[in-house]
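Q: I have 487 residues here and want to know how they pack in 3D. Can you give me a structure?
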Amino acid sequence: MKKMTSLLSLLLALPMMACGGSGSGSETPSGEGTSASGSVKIEALNVDNTKPLSAQNQVIYEMNVGCMTPEGTFKAATAKLADLRKLGIDIVWLMPIYPRGGGIDSPYAATDFKAVNPSYGSVADVKAFVIEAHRLGMKVWLDWVPNHTATNHRWVKEHADYYTKDSNGQMVHPNNYGDVFQLDYSNPALVKAMNDCLFYWIDQADIDGYRCDYISSPKIPANYWQDIIPRLKAHKKGLVVMGEGDLTDRNNQRLQGVGFDFDYAWKYQEGILYRSFGPQATDAAALQTQLEDFISTSSKMSNDRMTYLTNHDQNYNDGGRSLNKMYGENVNALTTLVFTLYGMPLIYNGQETGNDQILDYFHDTKIKWTIGNRKMYNTLRTLIALKHTQKALSHGTAAQRGSLKWLTTGNKSVMAYEREKDGNKVVVVLNFGTAQQTVTLKELTGGSYVQWLDSKTIASGPESRQLKLDSGTKITLGAKGYAVFVK
């Protein structure tokens, strides 16, 4: 009978664990999954309600209030916060909460930046949501839309001078989006009005940060951000600002160093994991080469980075792209990669259920909360707990992250790496192949390990395995299998 153990007791037991086996034997499992040679001690693993060791071990969750519950209100979403805390969420990023306009109900077409979509509730409801999140130990970020407003925003009539005009004196639709008008940041009055709205939500609802939409807009000068971000941080200690844009992109490099705490690792997801690798790929060696370049480029930046497999744009835009459509059978191994390699990982609302829904955020498709894929659900739960409790998985500056070492597998389909900080080591092995593979990791530091994640057994629930590993240990993974070991 399996004995339940908390994460804390497991971690405390790590230095003195009793493990059998020399690592010189061989075991070949049947089916998909992972096996390491030698005898093991197996225990059920409690991964619920974990808390991060530091701000560099946090996980962020993108929430559309209208999709979150059948009611689609802040009051109903507030009642769901306890579930998110149990899952291990640290930051809730709220998609735009403002009244919608422009004719097509885009949440990014606001009619009033100091009001709440009436179908969601009131400013008081937002405040109550934030109070409950803070009570549970979570932070709340608002989605901020600085580039434009809906075509029927009250400013269109009251302050036409706030908007950019074409040569005929007509307001401009940015990127030919017919539901919005471009704001004019050369007008000091507009800048003051937008800044007032930013301070408003800090004062009224005590929000903890902003996710700023479309910062790559050429119509918003870099010096605007250089001015407002320090002022926001002075207004509330600890406030965090994330920009929706990849600051390594040539067109966005002007925004490096202006004050954003996080940017989007856009090329990582869109360019590497989806476009280049995607649902059919098996070549882990080629993927590793791209990842090495990504990390080298990212390490030169002064800001931290958010990583993800999906978000509202990826999920719904361009006709809709579910996780299975984008990544196929690679989805679980890639999820493991995103949580353990680099950056702060994002979960898009409902992703944890494994239901593979397309969520129309214009019309607030309701999330199906029944668990559709227990393998995905339990994998995410375990990865969040790993991210929270292992120093080696910290994100942030080079000093905050610790070291990354790629481990030679001798197998083109299998990738392995070790992250280490202050003596804490996490070893990740991923098989992107379509058949079972067995590898040895010659650079592996030998000793006692706890296997936190095994793709063969995770659908049945999280469990830990205490075992010994060394450079001669044979590690077997099933097709599309994955494993995480902690030392």
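Q: Anything worth noting?
A: The chain has a mean pLDDT of 92. The longest strand covers residues 414-421.
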